[in-house]
Amino acid sequence: MNTFTIGGVHPQPNKLTADRKIETLALPKQAVFPLSQHIGAPAVPCVQKGDTVRVGTKIAEPGGFMSASIHSSVSGKVAKIDSVVDASGLRKPAIFIDVEGDEWEPSIDRTDTLLLQNNLSREEIIERIKNSGVVGMGGACFPTHVKLSPPKDCTIDTLIINAVECEPYLTADHRLMLEHPDEIIVGIKLILKVLGIDRAVIGVETNKQDAIELMNSKLSMVSGIEVMPLQMKYPQGGEKQLIEAVTGRQVPPPPALPANVGCVVQNVGTVFAIYEAVMKNKPLIERIVTVTGKSVKNPCNLKVRMGTPVSQLVEYAGGMPDDTGKLISGGPMMGRPLLDETAPVVKGTSGILMIPESEAARREERNCIRCAKCVQACPMGLEPYLLAAASESGDWECAEENWIMSCIECGCCQSTCPSRRPLLDWVRLAKNRVGGIIRARNAKN
Amino acid sequence: MTFILTAVLVLGLTGLVISLVLYAVSRKFKVEEDPRVARIIDLLPSANCGGCGFPGCAAFAEACVKSESMDGLKCSACKKEVMQHVAAIAGHTVELGVEKIAVVKCNGSCGNRPRTGIYDGAVSCAAAALMNGGDTGCFYGCLGCGDCVKACKFDAISMDAETGLPVVDQEKCTACGACVKACPRSVIELRNRNKLDRRVYVSCVNRDKGPVAKKACAVACIGCGKCVKACAFEAITLENNLAYIDPDKCRLCRKCVDECPQHSIVAVNFPPKKEKTESTENN
């Protein structure tokens, strides 16, 4: 069975919510939309305080080519444009909307009917995706219309659908495949049309056997799309790791893109969002969030309107357990800790995780014993101990020479370190600095 | 016996020949160096702190000798007299500005600024600042991981275990500015030393609106503007909900200190007040 070759770790899967059906969460009282929910330039608000909006009204335009628009997920009045502490822990500008009723834009098709065909051209599909503010739903939030317009000099031959969900605890993509397989298949066909190719592979890890079987039965009459079961290993959901697992091709270090090896990767959640955007004219205003944790009373998969405060999700799941030590937005490996529950759900919120205190606390840090476990675990073939040491001493040149910009911040090194060193923290710092140095250098030339 | 003699002769002659060769080479390829450079290097602190903008003390000394005047050349780590001496060796005159000192503009001790979370990542302010807003409700103040302590080449900054804030040793601080550069939150500023090291400054960098700032920290500047009105010398400006005292305009009257409802304006090295009006009258 296929998997990627370099590094990787095997964390406890803890998929507590794999059998829980997706439930719909009630509307919030106030929805908050941070203006930077995606990679690239923040969106620019196109509503003002006091404006009335409906569900699906565009409230912010893209702030550049690499950016995405934002739509209101609720109907009501714009209360203010202020700042909010989002999942990144930093204060960012956001639009606040007081909810009144639930009135939708009339152009949105709200029925559950499965639409199979439309006569849109390639450009029209991309335009609809762009206008609907669709971004990568796996967590990185890369604007999808940019990803679907690969550089002209690259020939694409394979579309890879990322349904790996290798992060422990999270089951949002798994449930989506079980409950909306037909929509996903239509979505894949739309992307194939945009890319002008006829081969798609859905990469799924073997712990989702029911999803593999269901997709296979649905695809028995469809040619060109296949399901590829993959051996479980973290971080198989990383773009480059998945390409290697599925096609055996290795993406060269940055600035090379997956398109350079003929692949485009889209998350299964993104495929669903593309289906809704193109066929139903529904912008990206909802997403599926796994709310889970070992001591959570009612772990669940929720369909949540964007902008809903995390506290409402936590409440639905039975409240925050007393022994909670850490509240995480995302998965345990790559998620970010939340300082409080007021942060809103954004396009990249794949899960809300409550980790018991006994597991959350980092234990005392020791000296590096040069065991090279981190080197063995790194899926990008880097030397995390060296990068961390370079970062600690501010040696940005050394970090750059040792390919720090290739790091995907998966956290394998840190989770495997027997001395419990905060390797990823240091690597992130150096990556940030080196990135700045490279940008400054490019701007000069 | 002859063995010993041969050995001594052979080694002695070899040594002699080599030394002659070395002497000849050293004469032929001699690098002419301005002797003043070496003399200046001897005067400089040799900490290579980089506060002057040159890669190290030697580079600075060379620049002093080569340049036409002392404009833009200043070793902040040197005392006034030393700088005058350096200028004299280089054949220039020097006009010295006011002496400065690093000032930590945050009073967010554990008591004043309640913790909202626990940060247990890498012990580095830069890494903590990247991770999130820190472990308090204040998004501007000191993170307390001691990047400034590590940056200081003169051992002038230490962390106060009780408050969790850095403390500058005013004897040792040379105002080289390394800590200012190291602080990711721009909490440290170089301010005038003034007479008897007396200073009045706003010990806060929080630019949030009043209620938000007040909730995060008991001694945060709330931007009420009382100090601006109280100041008779127009030394205080209010920008982004934060007051700033211009060190060049401030006359150290301390009116603003009494006026501040948040006690975020700090006066240091003043004798304890006897009467309220005494110090203001002197000015």
Describe the structure.
The complex is a heterodimer of chains A (445) and B (283). Chain A has 14 helices and 17 strands. Chain A has 445 residues and is of the alpha/beta class. Chain A has 4 domains: 72 residues, OB fold (Dihydrolipoamide Acetyltransferase, E2P) (Beta Barrel); 158 residues, Rossmann fold (3-Layer(aba) Sandwich), CATH 3.40.50.11540; 75 residues, Ubiquitin-like (UB roll) (Roll); 72 residues, no CATH class. Chain B is an alpha+beta fold and 283 residues long. Chain B has 2 domains: 56 residues, Orthogonal Bundle (3-methyladenine DNA Glycosylase II, Chain A, domain 3), CATH 1.10.15; 183 residues, Alpha-Beta Plaits (2-Layer Sandwich), CATH 3.30.70.20. Chain B has 11 helices and 8 strands. In chain B, a hairpin with a 6-residue loop joins β2 and β3. Chains A and B meet through β16 and α14 of A and α5 of B.
Q: What structural class do the secondary elements of chain A suggest?
A: alpha/beta
The major beta sheet of chain B can be summarized as: 2 strands, antiparallel
Shape of chain A from CA axes? Answer: globular
CATH-derived topology of the largest domain in chain B: Alpha-Beta Plaits
Termini gap of chain A = 47 Å
Per DSSP, what share of the residues of chain A sits in E-state strands of 2 or more residues? 15-25%
CATH top level of the largest domain in chain B is Alpha Beta
Please tell me the CATH architecture of the largest domain in chain B by its name: 2-Layer Sandwich
Oligomer: heterodimer
What features would you highlight for this structure?
heterodimer; A: 445 residues; alpha/beta; Rossmann fold; Ubiquitin-like (UB roll); 4 domains; six-stranded mixed β-sheet; four-stranded antiparallel β-sheet; 14 helices; 17 strands; B: 283 residues; 11 helices; 8 strands; 11% strand
Q: Concise description?
A:
The complex is a heterodimer of chains A (445) and B (283). Chain A has 445 residues and is of the alpha/beta class.
